[in-house]
Amino acid sequence: MSTEPRVEVHDDPRVLATAVAGELLGRLADAQRAGRVPQVVLTGGTIAGHVHEAVAQLAPASEVDWSRVVLWWGDERFVAPDSEERNAGAARRAFVDAVGVPEEQVHEMPSTSDADDVEAAAEAYAATFAAHGADELEVVMLGMGPDGHVASLFPGQAALAVDDRDVVAVPDSPKPPPQRVSLTFPALRRARAVWFLVSGEAKADAVAQALGDAAVEQIPAVGVSGREETTWFLDREAASAV
User: Fold this and answer.
1) Residue 2 has pLDDT above 60, yes or no
2) What predicted TM-score, i.e. pTM, was given to this entire model?
3) I need a surface site. Which of 47, 78, 152, 176 has the fewest CB within 10 A?
4) Rounded distance between C-alpha atoms, residue 137 and residue 72, angstroms
């Protein structure tokens, strides 16, 4: 059962990223010692990029066996495989390839080269998600936009009400590019731990609302919590309205 959210405030994005990376490596090692193969959902964005860089720096001194880690993405832009817009490409460059996660355990969402359209991409990822045992996720990491969106679940959109699928196509994202694939609330809530990674003053109001009594239709972030832990990792600017 999920507990009340925990809030950590760090001086700046780089300090925040180092703290998250350290906690991630520790949690993965603990899970492996307990006999689990941890499944992690990655996010995109600037702060995630800092976290990924910190993971690459700290990984050699950690006890994580990367051959026993499975990676997923919370959302992805439905674009060409080599597009700079893809979250997976950024994560690979920052740490995934460097630490040596086996290719068959790195589950990227389909690109325009893998699926005919965004609906087919969502169906394909749902099949992969089901086939590879993502019935329990160790950690889900999520950024949050100034509008309170997480993954590609945006305020007021129909995807917020989807409760019978793990993956949804988003054909009309208000943030470009418009076509995206996203995990749904039921999938994201399958995590032992949900970590929100948020930096910048532009997101301060949304953070305050998410930690208050906002409705999920207005601030989608409130629709996600971990079974054991929900933590908000904030820099001082993002926490300035809390």
Assistant:
1) no
2) 0.96
3) 176
4) 10
